[in-house]
Amino acid sequence: MADNILNREDLPQADYPTLQWSESAPPIKVTSRSDLETRLRDLASQHTDHPIIAVLTMPNGSCGHIGLGWEESIMFLWGPTGHDGWTEEWLPIVEEERKGVTEFFLLGQHHSEFENRRLLPIDDAIRAIGEFFESGTRPGWIRWEENKF
User: Fold this and answer.
1) Phi and psi based region of residue 47 (left: phi greater than 0; alpha: psi -120 to 50; beta: remaining)
2) Interval 101-129: pLDDT, tens
3) Are 61 and 13 in contact (CB under 8 A)?
4) Residue 50 three-state SS
5) How far is CA 24 from the centre of its chain?
6) pTM for this structure?
7) Fewer beta carbons below 10 Å: N end or C end of the chain?
8) φ, ψ (nearest 5 deg) of residue 117
């Protein structure tokens, strides 16, 4: 999975959805799926030399993470932290037999590597996080693997 992922407490939380893509800038309010997807496409085209992971944080504490800057992307989800202190995480499985890893930088800073078997085409990843923004649930057209941390 990823290394050097920030602790849940490090991610800002508000009473409205936010998107953050840099540690050096505060998160922005997300008001619509259309605005979110447009912003993500813009960020993807701006970070081709240093691929980033942006974080969409929902008011209930759940998060969507998306890699931007490559033609393929990682997109994974965290549920809100449970009463037992555990957080559910869902990672896509796209091509089970695919080997290798691809790197991104969480919020532009923290090196993270993801198995290539988990990568989605960038347009599919943006669509998936847009659906998560609208519904608060995992897109059903992606095969998911659950983890807890």
Assistant:
1) alpha
2) 999 988 878 899 999 999 999 999 999 99
3) yes
4) coil
5) 18
6) 0.85
7) C
8) -65, -15
